[in-house]
Amino acid sequence: MGTAETSTERGRGGMSEHRRRRVRLEISREAARLFWQQGVDATSGDQIAAAVGLSTRTIWRHFRSKESCAEPIVTQSVAWEMSTLRSWPPHLSLEDHFAAEADRFGRESTALEQADTALGIRMIRLADSEPALRTAWLMACDQVEHEMAEIIATRLDGKPDDLDVRLHAAAASAALRVINEYIGAALLDGVDPREFSDAASLIANAVRRATGGAVGDPVEGADETGTDA
Amino acid sequence: MGTAETSTERGRGGMSEHRRRRVRLEISREAARLFWQQGVDATSGDQIAAAVGLSTRTIWRHFRSKESCAEPIVTQSVAWEMSTLRSWPPHLSLEDHFAAEADRFGRESTALEQADTALGIRMIRLADSEPALRTAWLMACDQVEHEMAEIIATRLDGKPDDLDVRLHAAAASAALRVINEYIGAALLDGVDPREFSDAASLIANAVRRATGGAVGDPVEGADETGTDA
DNA sequence: AATTAGGTGTCATTTAGTGACAGCGGCGCG
DNA sequence: CGCGCCGCTGTCACTAAATGACACCTAATT
């Protein structure tokens, strides 16, 4: 694919997807901050542009609408759950893996990452009252569902567009979405985070139940040496 | 609630919600037709207004955005599934009930209703390629999820905002969504509708699996006389 | 150095969406 | 019956979201 992945930044148009993601996230941060501070309707494209230091035209080149500016930061807030699913070794139960990763996240995550997560939670909360943001949240979850389909497909040795895989992915990501809404709302209401120390098993059980047990338990026939990356 | 539900139409502001739904559906029909014929981007608010015979201003009074004009017709296309779920007697299995209702729908439905359903299917298909319509479809499914939460809450004797009820509703409606996308796409690809004579069991099994078996089977402790309407 | 391509800025333009006000039509009430 | 109230719609002016066209800059390729 790429002609060269030398070292610094983009290699003649190849690396630019990575760069694009960063710019979009940057915009999304400022947009989310403004949305939270003043509401979506009270925030203009010009304001977002000024806040991030770009021209308004460039904002519209990166996002097709004002509301969709919120998507990356919201996707980001569930990104670790996704990457956790991706790195899920076959011989572990979902709760064990999630618990370990959650712990690692608590220790290793950047302040920036945590701020992003907080911002994402606020956006999800805001989606309750602002229909425009609800669309953004649902679109982000739609993305998650597609990723989930790939993950489940590889884990169950099927194809991402098999009906069963799609059903599993849809149900699992819907469950994940509800839990995110639930925990996020609670956290914003001032509930002690340690209240959710069982989040791992909560998620695991929800996913397991939503997929009829197809996803959640250690995969048989997989030894500890790890067949997959 | 209503001051008077005499006979004809609206009773001094009370009946107007019903009327509002009809107008919205009317607009949605024309919008969907135009979206399908020329694409979403190529369709302007003015065109929709002209097609339905209202002023553009009135369109924006009924819908907050162009894309959301598609929501009613799309919601309509899953409306019978919802009403079927609502009328689901406790002592029946989901497949039996669905099969019976589907049969009844095939016999009793109006030509207009069938046209609406076809239009809805087209919108769902269009949502694959048009992000703007995908948001509308997802928002419609979000509505379905809320209805589903109420249905499940009553059936399981819980409250609609219980975490478990929400999880069940989310997973079940997500499954329903995927099946709708799947069957709709197949039908538009020219697959013989009789190919999906097992749709009832397909849906029932998907819902049952998505809810961990909590929804789908006859409810115990409910005799055939029927406790609920 | 010349080339190429993607990202960005600027300006003009279109179109989605809102505010304000006036007219119509039904309905309750004197 | 006539009067005023209320909700729905149309008209017009306006704001803001979004796109097109074009030029410039930067950086990697050759």
UniProtKB/TrEMBL annotation, chains A, B:
Pfam families, A to Z: TetR_C_14 (PF17754), TetR_N (PF00440)
Q: Which GO terms describe its molecular function?
A: DNA-binding transcription factor activity; transcription cis-regulatory region binding
Q: Which UniProt keywords apply?
A: DNA-binding, Transcription, Transcription regulation
At the top level of its lineage, which domain of life is listed? Bacteria
**Which segments carry the region annotation Disordered?**
1-20
Q: Which InterPro entries match?
A: Homeodomain-like_sf (IPR009057), HTH-type_TetR-like_transc_reg (IPR050109), HTH_TetR (IPR001647), MftR_C (IPR041347)
Q: From start to end residue, where is composition biased (Basic and acidic residues)?
A: 7-17
Please give the name of this protein: TetR family transcriptional regulator
